[in-house]
Amino acid sequence: MRSMKGNQSNIRTFILMGFSDYPELQVPLFLLFLLIYTITVVGNVGMMILIHTNPKLHTVMYFFLSHLSFVDFCYSTVVTPKLLENLVVEDRTISFYGCILQFSCACIFGVAETFMLAAMAYDRFVAVCKPLLYTAIMSPQLCTFLVAGSYTWGIVCSLTLTYFLLALSYCESSIINNFICDHSVIVSVSCSDPYISQILCFIIAVFNEVSSLLIILTSYVFIFTSVIQIPSASGRQKTFSTCASHLTTITIFHGTILFLYCVHKPKASWLIVKVASVFYTVVIPMLNPLIYSLRNKVVKETIRKLVLTKSHCHPISYMCYFISKI
């Protein structure tokens, strides 16, 4: 531990290269990411407020959705402000412990979202396949346990990986060829052997992805089997529509993760990795509230009532009202 502290004391900062290779795109990217982050904050915070204020949304599905919105808001806030800063200032440095903290927080919320989506898949399975027992199975105690378990496991994964990152020593070269401090780029600037840390990260990542996908796929196999057995086409369509938003979310989320796993190799294009990372860390948190709200009648009705009762003349209110009409 003594040598670890001595090695780390020599490293004051990391330099996040981000998209500095494309100076002509700095301002357009800043405006684009600022717009995305604004929509992310408004969408996720707005979703949490709507769920809290409307008694019709005090159901198990929206209980999970409120926590998904919270996770998306936190995850985006951990990553995007630093990305925006690096696009407009020449000093792209981040302190060593600031980099570690960004990774730790991103890990917590990334893992929590992974298992939150799995819990939502189980909720849809119970709703479709065991409707008469739904209230008894999806009890408040179980829902709280599933959400708390997602956060707790995220914290465990984060603390474990962070501990092994802090156990490494780091070289004088502190240039990180990315806009975010993820595990792979942090160990890439280590001058000690990162084998244990890399293997541990790989095991945790594979376990999280395989276990969550197994829960999701198993749930939807039973859901599709039940939907097929419904005699009427309208009944099948109505039942399946309750899962459409969640299916879209998990397809985008896990599809991006699997893509990152496939391209994140030494010979892979760093530009592709960066673009995929932007989609995973910046775009997906914006998409989730839009996916769950724009085609949801209850949410749209809540937005409409809230806008009309709170402010009839404010231009933002008219914008929200227009969105609710989509």
What can be said about this structure in brief?
The chain is an all-alpha fold.
Describe the structure.
This protein has a single domain (2-293), classed as Rhodopsin 7-helix transmembrane proteins (Rhopdopsin 7-helix transmembrane proteins), CATH 1.20.1070. With 326 residues, it is mainly α. The chain is built from 12 helices and 3 strands, in the order αβααβαααβαααααα. The chain has a 3-stranded mixed β-sheet with strand order 2-1-3. The longest helix has 34 residues, at 96-129. Helix 8 packs antiparallel against helix 9 (233-263). The chain has helices spanning 2-9, 26-53, 60-88, 96-129, 134-137, 140-166, 183-188, 195-228, 233-263, 270-293, 297-310, 315-325, and strands at residues 13-16, 93-95, 175-176.
